[in-house]
Design brief:
435 residues, mainly alpha, Sodium/glucose cotransporter, 21 helices, YkvI-like, transmembrane
Length: 435
């Protein structure tokens, strides 16, 4: 089952690492504007990604709800839930039109296309895709995330291979950049809160696709760690080239242009694809929220949202990040507090549910194995565990059975597999039923 949690980890990376990181503008304003000290903030950002990546994906698996509203209603007061709903809608809209502005800046910097024209192209594509097979389009666009990660690693290798830098001089140069806020640690938390706002809905969905909580925990944790590594190498590259990129709208693209113009074309196209994918996902999620399942209404809502978003994008990519991202970050801090408090409060229940589902899979393995027989006590325990689970009973039973069948198809020795991959704290289960 190791492939399962790595699949979730890579998907989570794609949710968080996208257009924002690929431009490099947010790293400049939030971190490197503090000089080399800003790299400590990047390290803290990696830790926050790992911690909250684990929390968000695990909550998705634990509750297995269809939407983020369903999970927030379980972990927060109804007033807080309503407030978070409004915050996420506003955050998605603002991030959406900032991405549209980024599309214009990207094409302008690389190809000399007027920013309004590049932003218009991105907006028109968003509307057109809403009338096509969305799953296939977004599936194709998903390949750009690993391409981007690979190119960032290539940029870092080129930057430091056989070269030395005067970090004191670079530190002084970096401090000439105007930071979005005066304190590095607040800046780091604010920026991660912004990332969490854009990623929480998909993180819940990723977790809800899993049955085993252990896989969800590892998927979110490992994905967060990988994000931390990617952001750090990008930040190191930007810091080493700070004198060349500090005034650029797309700093990473400016570095690639110094490597080779042809590579810069590939990078610019990749960035545009990531920006489009991010903007489409953000605007589409708002339209879905208000459409109520009506496809025609969804498309009309999306067109209206895109038009308003395009007009708002005229504020300029670099300027919009400096003005609006901090505000969104403060709004996102409320989300982080709610998630952390719920995690502390529900931790024991999550540990029990992890053991409970492992036990259910063990029983289901016996049920689907023609050479074994499930005892009446085990049948009773299985149904009891299903009934007390926070997840939907029928869906959980079905998915437990599917997981058991996949294990049976993949191994001949289910006993050894269960001992190695499905350990159960029997004492924990007993204590639960003795209360």
């Amino acid at each position: 089952m190791k492939k399962t949690y790595w699949k979730i980890a890579f998907a989570y990376i794609g949710v968080i690492v996208g257009a924002g990181l690929s431009s490099g503008q947010d790293i400049l304003q939030y971190f490197l504007s503090f000089g080399k000290k800003g790299l400590l903030g990047v390290a803290l950002l990696g830790l926050l990604n790992a911690l909250f990546g684990k929390i968000m994906v695990t909550f998705g698996c634990y509750y297995r709800e269809d939407s983020y509203e369903g999970i927030f209603s379980r972990i927060a007061h109804p007033i807080i839930t309503r407030a978070l709903d409004y915050v996420l809608i506003a955050g998605n809209f603002v991030m959406g039109f900032v991405m549209v502005a980024g599309a214009g800046s990207n094409l302008d910097q690389q190809f000399g296309i007027a920013p309004w024209a590049g932003a218009l192209l991105c907006s028109v594509l968003i509307v057109l895709v809403a009338f096509l097979d969305i799953d296939k389009i977004t599936g194709v666009l998903g390949i750009f995330t690993p391409i981007m990660a690979g190119m960032i690693l290539l940029i870092t290798l080129y930057t430091f291979w056989g070269k030395t830098y005067d970090f004191t001089a670079l530190d002084m140069e970096a401090r000439t950049i105007t930071p979005v806020m005066s304190n590095l640690w607040l800046s780091t938390i604010n920026y991660y809160a912004l990332c969490a706002m854009t990623g929480v809905s998909m993180a819940f969905i990723l977790g809800g696709s899993l049955v085993q909580l252990g896989n969800a925990e590892k998927g979110g944790l490992y994905g967060g760690i990988c994000i931390g590594v990617i952001v750090m190498v990008a930040a190191l590259s930007l810091f080493a080239n700070i004198d060349k990129v500090k005034d650029a709208d797309m700093p990473m693209l400016a570095i690639v242009n110094h490597i080779h113009p042809a590579l810069a074309v590939i990078y610019a196209v990749t960035v545009f694809a990531l920006i489009f994918n991010t903007a489409f996902s953000l605007f589409y999620s708002i339209a879905v929220r208000f459409a109520g399942g009506d496809t025609l209404k969804l498309r009309k809502c999306l067109i209206g949202i895109v038009i308003v978003g395009y007009v708002c994008s005229f504020g300029g990519f670099k300027r919009l990040i400096g003005l609006l991202y901090p505000v969104l970050g403060y709004m996102g801090i409320v989300l982080l507090v709610v998630l952390l408090m719920a995690w502390i409060r529900e931790r024991e229940k999550i540990i029990f549910e992890k053991n409970s589902r492992r036990k259910m899979i063990r029983i289901s393995l016996k049920k689907h194995d023609p050479e074994k027989e499930v005892s009446p006590e085990e049948k009773k325990l299985f149904h009891t565990l299903v009934d007390i689970s926070p997840a939907d009973s029928e869906t959980l039973k079905s998915d437990i059975g599917k997981a058991a069948r996949r294990i049976l198809d993949g191994t001949d020795d289910t006993k050894t597999y269960a001992e190695n991959n499905l350990p159960v704290d029997q004492d924990l289960l007993k204590r639960k039923f003795q209360k």
